[in-house]
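Justification of computing resources. Each target in the renewal requires a structure prediction run like the one illustrated here; the chain below, 509 residues long, is used simply to show the kind of job we budget for.
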Amino acid sequence: MKSISAILLLITPAFAAAPCDSLASLKLPSTTLRAALVPAGGFQLPNGRAIPNLPAFCRVAGIVRPSSDSEIRFEVWLPAENWTGRFEGIANGGYAGSISTGGLSAALNRGSAAAATDTGHAAATNDSTWALGHPQKVIDFAYRAIHLTAENAKAIIATFYGNGPRHSYFDGCSNGGRQALMEAQRYPADYDGIVAGAPAYYWTHLLTAGAWLALDQRAHPDEFIPPAKIAVIQNAVLAACDLADGVRDGVLNDPARCKFDPGTLLCKSGDAPDCLTAPQVALVRHIYDGTHDSSGHLVLPGFYPGGESGNGGWTSWITGAQPGAAEGIIYGSGFYRNMVYENAGWPDGVAQPWSVDAAVKTADAKLASTLNATANDLGVFQARGGKLILYHGWNDPAIPVQGTIDYFDSLTAGMGTRKTESFARLYLVPRMQHCGGGPGATSFDNMLPEIEKWIEENQAPGTVIATRFKTDGNRASGVLRTRPLCPYPQSAYWDGKGNPDDAASFTCK
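Resulting structure tokens:
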């Protein structure tokens, strides 16, 4: 039986310019490194979980400290053989707080070198307590950790293989989509191709809307909508709007055209399981209309009808299984408690009047330049050949899709239609919820193959075919339906005669 050292010798890449373990002595600014060659097979994580069936790889773990209050942990995984020449940056959801070994292993299995970071803290994704009193950690989370991880990863790749990556990609959704846009805006040389899904790019306004929900539920407990009533709302929406694209299938291809009035569900008297009370109708109208300040100025767009119920719907993100339990409320409250007001007691026990006007003004003044990725001039990124694909589920209950539409429209307005089309695309996915799932055709590989073809083969993306499996997300269960995803501003329309479960029966127009 071969010793471990003999096995490691066998899998040491013949094309490597430096042995894996020598990378630990690589000198990078404010960075310390560890490195070890991992043989093919199952890889045991420090938490005891094992990742099966990985190819042999060089694992580099590092800590970078760009400030006295920074401790950004990152890992770079390098295929020991059959490297494609690609580098993939792995994104973080929510408030980050961990290194995505799932993202690293997926990239490794594609033959890519990959890097991921915890963005400078260890916490659950909806936990922002780490930010309280730590402004440098907020900067690390906002943009610095992702950028420094990319820089360090490229240096490590170049040392290990003797040359840097031929193509570099970043693919993220939610906060990962915000990170993606932040890279294109602040550090346009980090990545060649960027995929930004459901980007939380207008962070200060998005989290203000969540805080409004939190305080509204406290002030008006009669507005709370129990989970059993959410399906009542969605059924009424589908009854009113499902035929708008010509086929009744429970999928609204363009819910912006659905003019559903929640007032039609008003209870005749009192309360009942199949209707809404007046306060509940008011809340639903707010969810659809969006969050405004006292002068009527829109702070955050509303959510479109059609994605109210189901796993990951309103109960998860907006209304909650019980008062105060929705993720949007948790994120928004934590943002104001730990980043904006830096008051661990907010709002409990604090005699502090709160209005959307004052709150968003304070949040923007303090943190917009750090956390928001709203810049609409990507000229440097475009000029160096960068490509950008945005996508968003029409029925995302966490981040309003209209915000992403507005951002893409701002690119077109700022850079011109022709220049924008030369490097950017937006895809809107019917009945997809937050970053995936939902009853629509929502399986499409997160656009990474499309951005690779655009960069490496100069093949600009057009219509993308999405699939709905019989069991959501399970390819082995068989295909239930395929649908075309059309580049914005086009939408898919049924031809009126073909199989409505076949993408070939739809036209983008």
